[in-house]
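#dry-run=false #mode=assembly
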Amino acid sequence: MSEGATQGGRGMRRSWTLRLAILLPFAWLVLFVLLPTLIAFKISLSQTVLAQPPYVPVLNPSGGWDAFVGFLNALSFENYTAVFTDSLYLASYLKSLQVAALSTALILLIGYPIAYAMARAPRGVQSVLLILVILPFWTAFLIRIYAWINILQRDGLLNQLLLSLGIVDAPIAWLASDTAVYIGIVYSYLPFMVLPLYATLERMDAALREAAADLGAPPWKIFWQITVPLSRPGILAGVLLCFIPIVGEFVIPDLLGSSSTLMIGQTLWTEFFANRDWPFASVVALVMLVILVGPIVLYEHLQARALEKAR
Amino acid sequence: MSDAAAPPALRFDGVTRRFGSVVAIDRLSLDIFAGEFFALLGPSGCGKSTPLRLAAGFDAPSEGRILLHGAPLTAPPHLRPVNMMFQSYALFPHMSVADNVTFGLKQEGLPKAEIAARVSEMLALVQLSALGARKPHQLSGGQRQRVALARALAKRPQVLLLDEPLAALDKKLRAETQFELKRLQRRLGTTFVIVTHDQEEAMTVADRMAVMQAGTVAQVGTPDEIYEHPASRYVADFIGDVNLLQGRVVRTDASSVVVACDGFGEIIAGPAPEARVGETIWLALRPEKIAVSEGGRAGVGQNEVTGTVVEVGYRGEQSMLEVRTAAGSILKVSVTNRRRRAADGPAVGESVRLTFAADDIVALTR
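#status=ok
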């Protein structure tokens, strides 16, 4: 009897702490994700004016019910029709998706062999390699991108190297090109691909590869039929960890790219800071969010399915 | 079972494997004959898995060679006509049971119809025909073990290597599976080489076995040869329960040896041709060969010891007694419980008279 009571008490306490554990991140998300998104949504339905704040209508809580109704009536979806009819924004979105897709593919192509080699290296070497992958994070991101400007500029390291090796006769204009943007993105996001891939590959039972060899599969078949399919969770995590932030990337195309590499992050920045058109900037931001929610939901779905399977 | 003139199915010829300064196996020479069920038995860490990995090609010997039906085995693992069943089973988690079994056959480029026929034959063999579409994570441990077996056997290997194949099963299932494995091997006639740390398992399944000791073979023989005539103290002690008595040789002739043992007096044991008078040797006496308070079996010479029962360990079908002799030494004696439950069965504190035949004592010089 008393034992049952004790257990009941413990169960209550556990459910209380459990509720708190769920509530904290939930409150965080409401406060710092949902609320700002709703504010952005409200602003996106407003019109721009030269004032402070730079949009109308402004919600005035002291105005009472009539003021609130007037505020609601003043909102409109005009900005949304504009964003979908103006080819500048459409091109900007497409450019972002294209850059994100191509550079993610490049990162996967470069990152997979790196992660594979790391996972197969001797234990002691593995931790050193892991530190080497993480090491660039110890330097500020901006400084690393400025370093690339140094490398890629007209009399930079890359051109000097190519000239001294006799590969080119005249320096190449690397900077302010799509190539420079791709180089910058691939360089910056590589660790986000290598780390989840390494984690998956390192965990993989070596006996599986041995079993495949034992059953007569040559090394390249083992790679394609065993290693790659089993590293799918790592590939998926890496692809999404790269693809999603690259779509919204601002700094790299702004510093290394040209006006032809106008990605959505730059468009957003221009609307917000140069044009001071907050409502339109909010529309651009929200549309980007919706575009990105797709892959995130897909990732969550696949992740949940993988967890189910593991159980 | 095997043609005496034919080379052994698998021969280890002076094989050594070093990992840095550690010698995993040391000049191993072993012949395993076609159609044989052979067991490599040893405690964990004695290097008993290494020969399998060398034969499968996952690892290469530092010295020596391995021959398959007389031909040196040097091809990479995917080209060797031997197959391995892994301790972890190593089933491909992203493939169904049938696809796991199919995997090896596809690599051979067999016609589709033949692959399908062979897969269903193999699944029937391990009684998993109904579960072909399941994924490995949907199976029980015993079922997974059978998939691993079917997958390895589907390739019709010349030698099947089994690395602790039953270690992950619980005791009861393991005992059943041992007999199943033995029946299967007899039916297929394939050469099986099993590695195990479980002496009961090795003795149950194997036609012949090798007891491994620190990377070398301590003894090779049939299970009863090894149990009844261990070649060394290590083997006698590793296989089953044993009393090891140390003593000095007093007399020796063609049929027996007399040894003065501390705490027991003179004991007559089976022949030990290499023992010299005055030399220190050991006597191995199995607990079940000792008779309690009875006349004892007739032998070349009779030994008799009196003592007091100090401990009784109940084991179900039998009990293990610890008997302290008059001189203070302890002897392990096993009695069947049909006997112990009887009114005159030995109990703690009772004096008993122990008798054992000279033939049942093995004299060991190493």
